Amino acid sequence: MDTDELTQSVWDISEDEFPDDSPLGEQAEFLLRYAILAPSSHNSQPWRFAVRDDAIEISYDETRWLEVADQNKRELFISIGCALENLCIAAEHFDIGYEITYHTDKDDDLVSTVTLDSDSEPSFSRPPELFNELTERYTSHQLFDDQALPRRTREQFHRVLEEDDVTLYLIYEPEQKRSIGELQADADEAQMDDPAYRKELGYWVGIGALGSSWLMARIGQAFVSHFDFGEREGRKNSKLIEHAPVIALLATQGDTPAVRVKTGQVFERLALLASVEDVAVHPMSQILERPEMRTKLATRAGTGEELPQHLFRLGYVEEERTHTPRWPLEVVSSTER
């Protein structure tokens, strides 16, 4: 992995450059410029794309799998789903139909195939305003303002859920948020108590994946790798949860790779809609990275038999939108014609 290739320039895309009169394969390559802007755990970007005529194969890159934090690859498949959703939104914007085939119940690294068809229409149409947010969406780590989300915004969030097997829970009740905040603190302390977890996190900090300068990334890597600051991190993150106007949780009946990919699609759609509404988003994965705490989260969030898949904060904050760097498309894709 050549970390020197991480760049901010991939965020600068002009839709006017779309190759209207070119074959589908060339159009597919342009659509992937939006796919790689998707969020991913630790900004690991664990996706690989192969363009084969009118089809795009999406696989995962095992070298970017968080083996310690994400032992069952839940976050890896959610990250792939986010990239897939970006691809679908871009295709719809440029009036390209598509069909998705999920391969994630197999033993190899092929996750899904998106077959493009300029003469067909997708079975589900996303809100068109989501496209402009592909290059604007960002993640906030700040304390959110004490401002409730309007009912209209909450209703919109529920309306954009396409997948019947992914349920959105919006949690507002203070005592419930406090309870989840306590669980978050326990998860942070448990994670940071593990030297292997700190080493893995330090690696991603050190290569600059989280957006720091080279010097600050190296300093951050040394600090994260060698010091257990779980108690401090737990206090900070539990406060972020307790003071957020809304805690959102995506949950599912099943727990297969395909379900996790669809969870990622739903999350990215919600994150883009939040961006339209100037609502900040912050995924928080530590609780779900601890199997025993994932069960406790289900109880405290009231999901019944549904399994928690993705937890995130929603709220308002005044801050400048900043983007984390990405590997350029040529690093993560190949073309066969």
UniProtKB/TrEMBL annotation:
InterPro entries: Nitroreductase-like, Nitroreductase/BluB. SUPFAM superfamilies: FMN-dependent nitroreductase-like. GO terms for molecular function: oxidoreductase activity. Keywords: Flavoprotein, FMN, Oxidoreductase. Gene3D superfamilies: NADH Oxidase, putative nitroreductase (tm1586), domain 2. This is Nitroreductase. It comes from Haloarcula nitratireducens.
